[in-house]
Amino acid sequence: MSTLPNCPKCSSQYTYPDGDLLICPECAHEWNEAASAPSEEESRVVKDSNGNILSDGDSITVIKDLKVKGTSLVVKIGTKVKNIRLIEGDHDIDCKIDGFGAMKLKSEFVKKI
């Protein structure tokens, strides 16, 4: 089995190496695998529900009532959260909410202030 990546232009699986370049025989696209691989910082872009890019230290607002798993508490719509931290995973925002404590949120349920 080939461990070479598929062509970024046509997604062909039949790529082959030629020196430092990778070549696609179906569309004749040539690219450098090392240059085309996104770095860790570039690949980790977190966006809110409106498409704004979030970063560490931002303030956000919750746009939907969120049930807190394991309790009967609910984080209400419009709750403001300051000084967020971005993390890896499904719940990509780590924060502290007044009255609830430390919590992880999904970026799709918040908007940047």
Automatic annotation (TrEMBL):
InterPro entries: YjdM, YjdM_C, YjdM_N. Residues 46-112 form the Protein YjdM C-terminal domain. It comes from the Bacteria. Residues 3-32 form the Protein YjdM N-terminal domain. Belongs to the YjdM family. This is Alkylphosphonate utilization protein.
